[in-house]
Amino acid sequence: MQAQPDYGPGLCVLAMIDAALGHKELALTEGRRAIALAPMQKDVNNGSRVIQYFAITAAWAGEKELALQQLETGLRAPNASLLLSYGALKLLPFWDPLRGDPRFETIVQSQAPKNYTAK
Questions:
Q1: Which end of the chain, N or C, is less surrounded by CB atoms within 10 Å?
Q2: What is the CATH code of the structural domain delimited by 8-110?
Q3: Per-residue DSSP letters for 23-65?
Q4: Looking at the whole model, is its pTM more than 0.85?
């Protein structure tokens, strides 16, 4: 970050680290700045990843509504990554803070393979 302070993808990783360390406000500020530095309109690949990582950051910071909004935005991106696949949403611990939220569970089911019924 010292070498490239305006590199959005790097800043979004720093935001996740700060969220994991409990620095909620700093993490959210960094995440929002990362989105501003790497907008999807300019760079779909980095922009969509930054949004996806910001969804995780917001979840870890306890901001469920913001996390769900970012998750939905990330899912609409033309190249949603493996972080947003059905298996990732269902199993990765990144998303644990959102588990049990009806809106999150609906999002998870929307990503399930066709003709799949959760048991």
A1: C
A2: 1.25.40
A3: -HHHHHHHHHHHHHHS-TTT-HHHHHHHHHHHHHHHHHTT-HH
A4: yes
